[in-house]
Amino acid sequence: MKSGAGTAHTAVPAFVPRNDKKIYRMNGHSVRHLPAAFIMAALIGASAMNPLRAQDSQSDTQNAEAQRVIAQGKDIFKTKATCQFCHKWDASGDQGYGGNALSLHATKLNPAQVAQTVKCGRPGTGMPYHDALAYTDKRCYGVTREQLGNAMPPEPNAFLNDDEINAVVKYLFATDVGRGPSTYQDCVEFWGSKTRQCDPMKPH
Ligand code: HEC
Question: Is the CB of 125 under 6 A from ligand 1?
Answer without folding.
Answer: yes
